[in-house]
Amino acid sequence: MPLQEIQARIEKAELAAGRAAGSVKLIAVSKVQPNDRVQAVLDQGHRVFGENRVQEAAEKWPDFKAQFDNVSVHLIGPLQTNKARQAMGLFDAIHSVDRPKLAKTLARLAQEQGQCPDLFIQVNTGEEDQKAGVLPTDTDDFVQQCRSLDLPVVGLMCIPPVDEEPSLHFALLAKIAARNGLDDLSMGMSSDFESAIALGATHIRVGSAIFGARVQHQKQTDSAENP
Ligand SMILES: *Cc1c(COP(=O)(O)O)cnc(C)c1O
Question: Where is the Alanine racemase N-terminal domain (predicted)?
């Protein structure tokens, strides 16, 4: 689907929700997409992208950033602590802060470097064993812990279970964010971003609807399961 069509659908959902046109940030999820497809979206003027692997982003984005101004790249996949330093150099935002050990590592690096990407805490709203994220009941404490480490936490992120109504998860995430005074909500993907916008998403992560189906990759399972 052309980028313009996605943008039109976003604007329609923004207005339907009584929100200002242009208030939702579209993160174009370029993971596993061939470079020519990514380049085509850059050529159309889009500048905000999402990747779920540090290594893949490191191979792809420095070249594009040299060619195009004002590109920002968000990490939307799991982050191992031993890749945290590299991630801080590559990404403008990290949506997958999900455990104390990672928070402490990011805090140490942020102190050392005097800067830190915007951080989202990932919440496992469906309480799925295979999925990353803090449990809803642990989120308030974890937000506090991140704040006491002086981390720039801007919001929460979730990936709803594939077989459940996503709006229930979006509403839960919005509720947890509100009671913690967090403004940003990273929620909504190709199949459900309109419902996420209706429930307050500030950042939507849309891949296949923009770029087409992901081309399979040997080491990559094609899913938003995380990890
Ligand atoms: C791949 C991925 C997306 C995009 O999924 P689409 O269904 O292609 O829009 C969004 N969020 C996360 C965390 C992902 O891994």
Answer: 17-214
At residue 88 the predicted structure's pLDDT band, cuts being 50, 70 and 90, is very high
CA distances to 19, 67, 176, 209 from 95, rounded to whole Å, are: 23, 25, 16, 20
pTM: 0.94
Q: Is 174 in the pocket of ligand 1 (CB under 6 A)?
A: no
CB 136 within 8 A of CB 172: yes
Cβ of residue 159 lying under 6 Å from some atom of ligand 1: yes
Domain span at residue 92 reads 2-211
Question: For residue 226, is it within any domain?
Answer: no
Task: Kindly state whether residue 222 falls inside one of the protein's structural domains.
Answer: no
**Could you give the dihedral angle defined by the CA atoms of residues 126, 129, 130 and 134, in that order, rounded to the nearest 10 degrees?**
60
Averaged over 173-180, what is the pLDDT?
98
The ligand 1 atom nearest the CA atom of 157 = 13
| 200 Cβ inside 6 Å of ligand 1 | no
CATH number at residue 150: 3.20.20.10
Question: Residue 226: what pLDDT?
Answer: 52
